[in-house]
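Thread: Newbie trying to understand structure tokens

Hi all, I'm a second-year student working on a class project, and my supervisor (Dr. K.) asked me to get a predicted structure for one chain before our next meeting. I've only ever worked with sequences, so writing a 3D structure as a token string is new to me. If someone could post the tokens and maybe explain what I'm looking at, I'd be very grateful. Here's the chain:
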Amino acid sequence: MKIVGIDSFTLRVPTVKPMALDLPEHRLVVTRVQSDTGPEGLGYSLLFGGAGSEAVEAYARHLSTLLIGEDPLFVGRLWDRMYRADRGIRRVGLAGYAVSALDIALWDLAGKVANLPLAKLWGATTDRVAADGSGGWGSYSIDDLMGEGARYAAAGCRYYKMKIHSPEPRVNRQRVEAVRKALGDGVQVMVDVNQKLDVPSAIRQAELLDDLGLVWYEEPVLADDIAGCAEVARAIRIPVATGENHYTRFEFRELIERRAARYLMPDVCRANGFTETLRIGQLAAAHPVAVSPHVVHELSVHVAAALPNASLVEWIDWVPGDLFEGMPRCEGGAFRISDRPGHGISLTPDAEKKYRLNER
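---
Reply by user tm_fold:
Sure, no problem. This is what the structure looks like when written as tokens:
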């Protein structure tokens, strides 16, 4: 089997309110890997807000030239070829997104050839992974927060994640308190700082939330400041979560060694695809540290199901119904692994026509 072609393109997908108040659109950089024997693999990276999609697509096209003519089932070898190319460009940021889109497509193809869903191909530990309903953007009113949390709870979610973006710590506490009261004891809450604070401010904010029984306190400081994250983790009682803006097992090794977080959150669309995300999860399992993959639940559920130390998958309910086929449904607060081979997701027949970004 050989790779005979790779298509790369970008889908621009508008969001709806209230998410649209913060992020009016998302973009997907899509790759399709074609083989000489028929099966095709689909990969994509999700870029929140769309920034940088042009660069990701351009670099994915460049990396694709390294794969043409190769056996797609040697996924690890091809991943290593992409990772080690262009030594002056580290596989973080936009380059990590590009590797991810191609690696995801290669694994999708491998699963289809094996006629197995990826979780089972990797030696699944479960066929069902619990979800945390996520959103709670900073521009939401308290009514928006409570309404979104209630919708997730109606789907069986026992966890809800919201942002705390106000520059006034007491306002953040009031919002969290209101949500906890509205959702009741059956739903646990986690909060996301999104890197907006420095170390002293992150500690002060956490202390103000300490008695609310939060599951975790996410990305308290800049992702680049691993030492600062570790300082916050040592100083507060709420468990720290981080990782969505870290891209390699080497970064995650430092997070683990510094005890910077009790929950690690790699994103398969950023952390160099399924290949590296699985390595990150296995590294965390050796310590042990819990793994809760960041967003794209339709893909990351396979990673979580294959890891003994997976906690939750993050579910942001934003995907329009005419974008994908095979999207897993949240039932009883969890997602089940489907029997569809590969990752099980495909574009609808009209998705490319409706959402494809016009080339200039």
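A couple of things are worth pointing out once you decode it. The first strand starts at residue 3 and ends at 14. The two ends are 35 Å apart (CA to CA). Feel free to ask follow-ups in this thread.
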